[in-house]
Amino acid sequence: MGPNLPKFIDALKKALGPDEVITAREDLLCYSYDATPDLPRVVPVAVVTPSATAEVQEVVRLAGRYGVPVYPRGAGTNLSGGSIPTVPGLVLSTLKMNRILEVDPDNLLAVVQPGVVIDRLNETVAPHGLTYPPDPGTVATATIGGSVAECSGGLRGLKYGVTRDYVMGLEVVLADGRVARFGGRTVKNVTAYDLVRLFTGSEGTLGIITEATVRLIPAPAARKTLLAAFSTLTGAGDAVRLIVRSRVVPATLEIMDRVTIETVESYARAGLPVGAEAVLLIEVDGVPEAVEREAETVAGIVRRCGGELRTAADDHEREQLWAARRAALPALARVSPTTILEDATVPRSRLTDMLLALHGIAEEYDLTIGTFGHAGDGNLHPTILTDARDQEEMERVRLAVGAIFRAALSLGGTLTGEHGIGLAKKRFLPLEMGEEGVWVVRAIKRALDPRDLLNPGKLIPAAPAAGADGEVDPG
Amino acid sequence: MGPNLPKFIDALKKALGPDEVITAREDLLCYSYDATPDLPRVVPVAVVTPSATAEVQEVVRLAGRYGVPVYPRGAGTNLSGGSIPTVPGLVLSTLKMNRILEVDPDNLLAVVQPGVVIDRLNETVAPHGLTYPPDPGTVATATIGGSVAECSGGLRGLKYGVTRDYVMGLEVVLADGRVARFGGRTVKNVTAYDLVRLFTGSEGTLGIITEATVRLIPAPAARKTLLAAFSTLTGAGDAVRLIVRSRVVPATLEIMDRVTIETVESYARAGLPVGAEAVLLIEVDGVPEAVEREAETVAGIVRRCGGELRTAADDHEREQLWAARRAALPALARVSPTTILEDATVPRSRLTDMLLALHGIAEEYDLTIGTFGHAGDGNLHPTILTDARDQEEMERVRLAVGAIFRAALSLGGTLTGEHGIGLAKKRFLPLEMGEEGVWVVRAIKRALDPRDLLNPGKLIPAAPAAGADGEVDPG
Fold first, then answer.
1. Alpha-carbon distance values, A83 to A43, A157, B160, B227 (Å)
2. How far apart are CA B330 and CA B263, in angstroms?
3. What's the predicted TM-score (pTM) here?
4. How confident is the model at residue A466 (pLDDT cuts 50, 70, 90)?
5. Strands (E), A236-304
6. Spelled out in words, what is the top-level CATH class assigned to the domain A100-218?
7. Counting Cβ atoms within 10 Å, is residue B307 exposed (0-12), middle (13-18) or buried (19+)?
8. Per-residue pLDDT averaged across A426-442, rounded?
9. Could you tell me which of B394, B277, B275, B261 has the C-alpha nearest to residue B335?
10. What is the per-residue pLDDT for A465?
11. Chain-centre distance of CA B302, in angstroms?
């Protein structure tokens, strides 16, 4: 016998007020999706939109009492299925907890609720000359809570790091409804285990983030954007390697391959060099003098590697180039009904090898794969253009995805640089972490959420052995 | 009945060879100490010095079989008792695992064994124009393994962060003797929980680090050191706050108070301004043009806050100033038989409040306290000059230490910025983390080391309630 759902929903309405409990079937449908394609869809039994930590506690306690799983959710921009239900349960949306509680320029930090959109935080701190660097592609909609839960990356990882580097403190509601606070407002803190970083990237499986204290940095005073077109992948890969070696650390160092360039160009007409095998989009930032010097170093390397160079003459041209890069995913998504976006990441020096491996995989499985991503981080987004209705092709897609992960791992890489494991990649986890690593992950999950109530079915393969969770065998 | 120690030691000698097992009483005595004063001394039953991961596994398995606790140890520079035994057991020294396995300038990383001394890593990567930024005061002796286990800080935290920001991958031997590997060689990795950072700073309680992959950065091309003398603490505190606000991020921003200045000067004759209430020692680094500009900004702020300025004219003068700063602890230690060095850390903007609180505490408990530390991080090292043989004074010292922590916490700070909890501060843990936070810490420890074999008695208060572990009540 399952939980008594009508009684549970009544209890929720009593605790939160009816306006914060959504139960209409047509509304609930939306919450069986996030931005990840090709996953099973489970409609939640209800969605709650609490507006305070105490309400989150109340929800988690009620869910525990009735044995109903809780799926925390921000803006739903997740790309690994992290925010969608696996079995019928309750979606907890943080979107009403959207206040910026404090901006503290003396301590270079801000305190925010989880539903704050990243862009809005940046708009709020900009007048102080400050910035919050983590910038996933969806900064205009993604929330701090979601991006902390996923440890989002973005375009500036090479110089500025990722979300984990900017979380100083967290308030979380634990699986039993208690509130814990980790870290705080000091730049140094080694009190006991690093629970701030354990919960950052825990994908909602260990607790629900109800407040975050994030580090800000002075916004760079100057920046310069360069576009480099290459007639070979190897030329682009060499340039990336030499730039990293040159002691210049660009703020962004992005790559787009031929398929992506052509698709973006026919979609956005940004003036990308159609016909090139790859382009690099490079931005250096910092104090003006350093920016000039670093741009020269980068330009020299690009030329030595056979690249053709264009420099953004003004802010308008700069914006146009970055708009083209940000259009990569939407442009690719327009070409075909289904877009499978992957996230395989390799050590930077193996970038060319990974690009060549992706070409081979596209050929082997007879698929169209456009690749773009954060070349400076070795973080590529191979994007398979397909159609979920074509069963035969989808089978090849799934095999290709497995091949992509195995290629990344064999080059010393990882399953996911910034999108998370979620539902989409959990079956591959043992390939990267081994039985021992998965055992540690599972032991921590069991210790902190013994009844598996928080975002169940995510991140951890169901059985100790790889491929034993009823999904396609990765081997 | 305790473990059968003679059989255990025989088994160790058989597994490792007799040269890697130390049992002579006079040798073992040294291992009942680290750099922390005023702690109970327990002599280990043996010390092993394995030279490979497989040997560490063998040791941990044997320890498990015989039920003997294992205390991992690097160079023993720990300042919170993290590396000394609490009950008779086995010390596992990593000093023979001291090979730099790889320097990879293409990926800006190095792979090292735990016994590598930090300075040696830096000497090895310097010819590549690279540097490993974390620099605890003891870089000349402290090991990578120990500093990762403690998540050491150092003088460059303000701009460059601390150890956790530079660990990309770890190999650890778990409590049951299995080997797990976390993270790797990619700059982005969000595969499952952030176990790299959970184990970094876990003080040897969750596993034994047998290999670390660490991030390197390009060494700064230029730097400039300034000394600023202030006639009031408030002036120095204001200058720190305004520098942080100014968008300049100095590599180091150190403070020494009057007691420290006078003691260092009489010890080292570095030309510090005796009579000043505080000095700030500031270094900016980066590309030459930026360094000049930032030094000017800092100088302007110092003057506005009433500080008197001296700039290091050349490398020799620069070295002299930094030698004076690094002499702070040894100089203070020379003045009195016992030196109680604390580590309370506050948000940067509360630095003046904390300095004034320390003055008040010194007065209230009639103690001499010299304070120096990393002002830019809000990370102060109040140092109580005392004599462990004077029971009455030591009682006042212990009360003062409690008062220091309560002051730091009430200013929004933390028990420890960089020295760890260890044995010395575990009774205070609930004051910072609350019952809920301590519960999470304990749950993780139990999940990963259910028999409490790895560095037992550290980091976690013995009983759920504060002050219930038989030590002085912190309240």
1. 12, 24, 34, 53
2. 10
3. 0.95
4. very low
5. 252-257, 278-286
6. alpha beta
7. buried
8. 97
9. B261
10. 46
11. 29
Q: How far is A111 from chain B (nearest CA, A)?
A: 13
d(CA A419, CA B147): 30
Helix (H, G, I), strand (E, B) or coil at B260: helix
Task: Return the C-alpha torsion angle B419, B424, B426, B429, nearest 10.
Answer: -60
pLDDT at residue B201 in the model: 98
Q: Which residue has the higher pLDDT, B59 or A157?
A: B59
C-beta separation of A383 from A339 below 8 A:
yes
Please choose, from the candidates A406, A399, A377, A18, the residue with its C-alpha nearest in 3D space to the C-alpha of residue B187.
A377
Q: What is the reported pLDDT for B466?
A: 43
User: Nearest Cβ partner of B194 from A200, A219, A429?
Assistant: A200
pLDDT, one tens digit per residue, over B144-190 is 999 999 999 988 988 999 999 999 999 999 999 999 999 999 999 99
Is B222-410 a domain of CATH 3.40.462.40? yes
Angle among Cα A151, A152, A158 to the nearest 5 degrees reads 110
Residue A302 contacts by C-beta under 8 Å, 6 or more apart in sequence? A226, A228, A239, A280, A282, A309
The pLDDT value recorded for residue A137 is: 85
Three-state DSSP class for residue A11: helix
Residues of chain A with C-beta less than 8 angstroms from the C-beta of B151: 190, 194
Q: Output the CA torsion sign for B13, B19, B23, B28.
A: negative
Tokens of A253: 């160092």
pLDDT at residue A474 tops 70: no
Instruction: Report DSSP letters for B229-258, one per residue.
Output: EESSHHHHHHHHHHHHHTT---SEEEEEEH
Instruction: Test B187 with A377 for CB contact under 8 angstroms.
Output: yes
Does the domain spanning B5-93 belong to CATH 3.40.50.2300? Answer: no
Separation between Cα atoms, residue B152 and residue B328, nearest integer Å: 18
Pairing of strands A70-73, A90-93: parallel
Indicate if the pLDDT at residue B35 is higher than 60: yes
d(CA B55, CA B319): 42
Mapped to the 3 state alphabet, what secondary structure does A323-365 carry?
HHHHCHHHHHHHHCCEEEECCCECCHHHHHHHHHHHHHHHHHC
The C-alpha atoms of residue B391 and residue A92 are separated, in whole angstroms, by 57
Half-sphere exposure of B466 (CA within 13 A, CB side): 15
Question: pLDDT at position A335, please?
Answer: 87
Whether the CB-CB separation of A242 and A305 falls below 8 Å is answered with yes
Is the pLDDT at A323 greater than 90? The verdict is: no
What pLDDT, in 10s, does the model give residues A273-288?
Answer: 999 999 999 999 998 8
pLDDT-wise least confident of A329-333, B53-57, B106-110: A329-333
Beta bridge partners of B255: B280, B373
Picking from A187, A208, A213, A416 by the largest number of B CB atoms within 10 A of its own CB, the best residue to mutate is: A187
- φ and ψ at A164, to 5 degrees? -60, -25
Give residue-wise pLDDT tens across range B255-309.
Answer: 999 999 999 998 878 889 999 999 999 999 998 888 999 999 999 999 999 999 9
Q: Which of B53, B188, B455 to mutate to test the interface with A (most CBs of A within 10 A)?
A: B188
pLDDT exceeds cutoff 50 at A217: yes
> What span, in angstroms and rounded, lies between the C-alpha atoms of A372 and A256?
4
Kindly report the number of other CB atoms within 10 A of residue B306's CB atom. Answer: 16
Q: What is the DSSP letter of A143?
A: B
pLDDT of residue A463: 64
How far is A440 from chain B, CA to nearest CA, in Å?
7
Q: In the prediction, which pLDDT does B467 show?
A: 41
Angle at B27 between CA B22 and CA B28, to 5 degrees: 75
